[in-house]
Amino acid sequence: MVFVLVISLVYFLGSYYVYNRGMQALPQGVIKTIFPYLFWFFTISFMAGMYLERGPATMFATIITRMGSFWIAALLYMLLLVVAIDMVRLLNHWFHFIPQEWTQTFLSGKWLFAATAAVVSVIVFAGYLNARSAQINNYEITIDKPGPDNGSGELKIALVTDIHMGFILGDNRVRKLVKNINKVKPDIVLLAGDLVDHNPLPVVKHDMGRHFTKVEAPLGIYAVTGNHEYIGKPDISVNYLSRFGITYVRDTMINVAGKLWIVGRDDKDKVNYVGVGRKPVSAIMNGHNYNEPVILIDHQPVEYDAVANLNVDLMVSGHTHKGQLWPFGYITRKVYENDMGLMRKNNTWFYTSQGYGTWGPPVRTGNRPEIAVITLKYNK
């Protein structure tokens, strides 16, 4: 409750700062008259959407949620631009480097308002298009173990994280995801958490899971839970998606094709929502035959030292979105040892994906969404 109140306070203070500057910039007229109504309608729509998206998947809830989701991205860049303008004005007050006639013409309030609105619109629209344009990133690693004998001496893994199916990412995007997975012809598909954006009701209502039956992967589809499954109703999400060929690996390990082990961990935030923590990775892997390849799936890129000491060959994660919206990528870089990409520690490879979907606004300005294709070569 304290966290929600603090975030709400910051949100409304930032909103008021932008609103106040907008009112100061606008001259008297129709636009200034309607501006307060539009601004606060959109501001409240975001908070209303956060509440409505936890309930039934109605058309009204979908419209308000999407409207508010776009608004929060727009508000972020309005705030950044307004702060930048005010900083320039403050410096100019001290050093007088802007000609006075400029401040009375194209740097006057109404022109700065129009320019800010135009720049923010372009950023948000471009970020929306970017968020819908997933790229396929290819990686290749070699391990000193023999793997499943599929005749090629390698294992092609399609890794997808953070789909966030729900009110924002809908049926068409899931269909496109499956189509792109099949293009790379994977041997196995790994889904590293946050398949559902906390509320499974719109996923079930639109039967989005049916598309996964069309995935072409000889060794199957394996998934773990993410924090967003636990924010919502994890049992509904897991039970529903398990009907479509997705095998959830939850704090256990399973054998695939005789010589490959998949270790799946429940999300580390599980304890905050259901009161029970996940198993330590050492307990899950107790007594394992380490001469066979081991792939660990953990939604959040954490506990690298513990995993590296257990002779795991590859750990895959997501969660970070690499910040999703610039400049938040600088924060994820500080928080996580590996917030995006491939790294190695001891004999273990670690990969963190920036994810396929989006959380909050359906906008990406810090990076592109991805399907990661990791080719695991066996050094026999």
Secondary structure elements and pairings:
Layout: H1 2-25, H2 30-52, H3 59-95, H4 100-104, H5 109-131, E1 135-143, E2 154-160, H6 171-183, E3 188-192, H7 201-205, E4 221-224, H8 227-231, H9 234-241, E5 246-248, E6 252-256, E7 260-264, H10 270-274, H11 281-284, E8 294-297, H12 304-308, E9 314-317, H13 329-335, E10 341-345, E11 348-352, E12 370-378
Parallel strand pairs: 1-12, 2-3, 3-4, 4-5, 7-8, 8-9, 9-11
Antiparallel strand pairs: 2-12, 6-7, 10-11
Helix pairs in contact: 1-2, 1-3, 2-3, 3-5
What can be said about this structure in brief?
With 380 residues, the chain is an alpha/beta fold.
Question: What would you call the shape?
Answer: elongated
CATH architecture of the largest domain: 4-Layer Sandwich
Helix-strand string: HHHHHEEHEHEHHEEEHHEHEHEEE
CATH T-level topology of the largest domain: Purple Acid Phosphatase, chain A, domain 2
Unreliable stretches: none
**CATH homologous superfamily caption of the largest domain:** Metallo-dependent phosphatases
What fraction of residues sit in β-strands? 15-25%
Number of strands: 12
The secondary-structure class comes to alpha/beta
Q: Could you give a short account of the major beta sheet?
A: 6 strands, mixed
Please bin the fraction of helical residues.
40-55%
> What is the tally of helical segments?
13
Global mean pLDDT: 93
CA-based gyration radius = 24 Å
User: Major sheet: order of its strands?
Assistant: 1-12-2-3-4-5
Number of domains: 2
